[in-house]
Amino acid sequence: MAEPLIKKKESLYLRALKQWQKAADIIDLDYSVRTILSQPKNEIVIHFPVKMDSGEMRLYSGYRIQHNNILGPYKGGIRYHPQVDRDEVKALAAWMTFKCALVDIPFGGAKGGVTVNPAELTENELMRLTRRFTHALGSNIGPDYDIPAPDVGTNARTMVWMMDTFMNAQTAIQRNSQRHVVTGKTLTCGGSLGREKATGQGLVFVLRSWADENNVSLSDMKFAIQGFGNVGSNSALLLEKRGAKIVALQDENATLYNEQGIDCQALSKYVDEHRTIAGFPGAEVVNKSEFFALPVDAIIPAALENQINKDTAKQIKARVIIEAANGPTTEDADIILKDKGIVVIPDILANVGGVSVSFFEWVQNKTSAQWSLQEVDHKLGNKMRQAFHRTLEEAKAHNVDLRTAAYIVALKKIQTAYQERGIFP
Ligand code: NAD
User: Minimal CA–CA distance to 307: which of 324, 320, 284, 286?
Assistant: First the structure.
């Protein structure tokens, strides 16, 4: 049969669905729980106008998808990226449900996004877009109902705009007790110490647990990291501190390689100024297509979905892949990696440090407390190690990969909550 002229994009939501349903089959998940989890509870789509600096008005599309809240308020990031669509946000929202259950924090799963390239907007335009979107979301978000956080293309500054807009729409009496409507804020505006690096820090804790299990020392390992944004750069800096060599880095604009290790401290300063790794003098530039074939022990995809696909998976020589990004590995790539004996530490485990410290920030806001960085890191370390070991136990018990095992841990917890509460009415 001839190839269709218009190829349908693979549904990310369908991939997420297949991933957890594989685990559901293994534990014979209750039919009603399976049915409830198969669709999000709420899907909010908003088309909203924003005034550009030129005076022109543009219409943007924004999403907030609330997948499940059996374990607590909806929780999940807000993404600003040109590829954002309803299917992507649905998948990301579902993954949040499983992450929170796996790491044992009392939140459900949600995600949001706006289809926009933030690099093309000025600071003022971004502020107006954020405020208008937040206002349009209205009471669909709230400190005890649905709590956004940063993701690709958003950061602490975006969260503070969201918080301020939300607070200004409350009554005077309520206004000051609503800071925890978002997490990932700046320290001055109620953020937590350690939140900025939390996803990278959590990933390093999980990787250390894996390394201990396998008698590997991180300082002997060479890494390739895709993405040098919040998650990629913090993972790189923390691994470098532990003596690991980051030999390859890729962002949207360039792929860099240095067999002796790239100086990530210096690169981080360079990126602060230039917004990209392109042009950094401490490494050679290699072709984008060579990235996954480079001789490394571990690869950390920390950019977007679908980066490890059936073509790139075939090139990979690494022993372990730690999924910092959400959904970086396609279904067929998973099979290829398994056949090659490459371990995948799945996204719902590897990147759960971010939402864990978001939970700590939320608790601190609710109790007007400020925890020290040591306290945050200590609590995060415990959470990540426990999640890793729970996953490993299920992997051994059912003889399955870590991805399926992580879903088993999460699904068992969600199923117990439904069994105890029953289905209303
Ligand atoms: P970010 O916007 O700070 O950085 C994204 C990075 O990816 C940038 O360096 C960008 O240049 C690079 N990139 C984008 N497209 C690319 C491409 N095609 N090839 C190579 N590089 C590309 O985003 P982030 O917050 O670091 O998030 C990265 C990933 O981690 C996402 O999948 C996100 O959902 C996930 N994640 C983030 C957090 C968090 O706390 N920020 C928490 C959990 C998971």
Answer: 324
